[in-house]
Amino acid sequence: MGEVVPILRTHLFRGIAVGLVVASLSFIVVHLTKGDTALEIAIARYNIDITNESLVEQIRVEEKLDQSLLIQYGRWIGHTFTFDFGHSLVSNEKVTNLLWYHFRYTLILSATAMLISLVIALPLGIVCGMHPGSVLDNISGLMSSALVAVPHFITGVLLILVFAIQLQWFPVAGFFTPSHLLLPAVTLGIGLAAFSNRVIATAIVNVRSAAFYQFARMKGLTESRVLLHHGIKNASIPVITYIGLQTAHLLDGVLVVETLFAWPGIGKLILDSILARDIPVIQGASLFIGLVYVFINATVDLICIALDPCRNTTETSQWE
Prior knowledge:
Elements: H1 4-32, H2 37-46, H3 53-62, H4 69-80, H5 95-130, H6 135-149, H7 152-166, H8 179-208, H9 211-218, H10 223-260, H11 266-276, H12 279-307, H13 309-319
Helix pairs in contact: 1-4, 1-12, 2-3, 5-8, 5-10, 5-12, 6-8, 7-8, 7-10, 8-10, 10-11, 10-12, 11-12, 12-13
């Protein structure tokens, strides 16, 4: 328990700092964007045909967009630390409700993509780590390099062309049935697996060359027994750390994939809000994603402590 408290304290302060920085940057970026915010909101709310100057000015006053940027910034920072992100300027719905609704879909998509990547990467990485330099290891490395270089939207378009249009096995886009989930999840999962399998293979190679592993083999224990009882646990620490980074990376990758497949996650919400100049939603979503990053990092640290408490206690004392 002693090593957990410093970790939690570190991440608590980090969360506060990230919240302040992200809140400030999102405010600056939104207000540096060219265009009339009140006009964009009026068009999004009432359609361009009935939007006029008086309506735009009415929205400007109602939403307090006529106040100075310093006052608007102070109000936004005050709301940030009370988790009151206000309401959408377009739909008038509470931002927290919008974030929760759309984040659920992102969570489902991310979890499915991570599961797909692990199903591919874990066995492949372990086999390649057990036989480094083999034909399978070389082919795996080549394919991983190629897949890493391919953007998500290229992979997604290819999957749509083959499995949705040519074979018609899956719907092109939407979120109405479980079948709508597979193509976007595979699009993300393939990219994640390309990274993960090489990290897993490297971790296995490093563990197999460690002194404790070699000593266990000299005692007469079989390769499979040493790997299962000692190797996997020690190799899992860098792998879990990397998976944590990948999970955070998913929050960036989903924006392209969710837009491509019309998946109603938080990435698509951000894009739609940017197009509509919906400032509270943009700022709230940016801050929310920043805090999720901190939460994922804290969770990964705690898992690593559970796997290797002595190692992480030493690291924690070095941080302090």
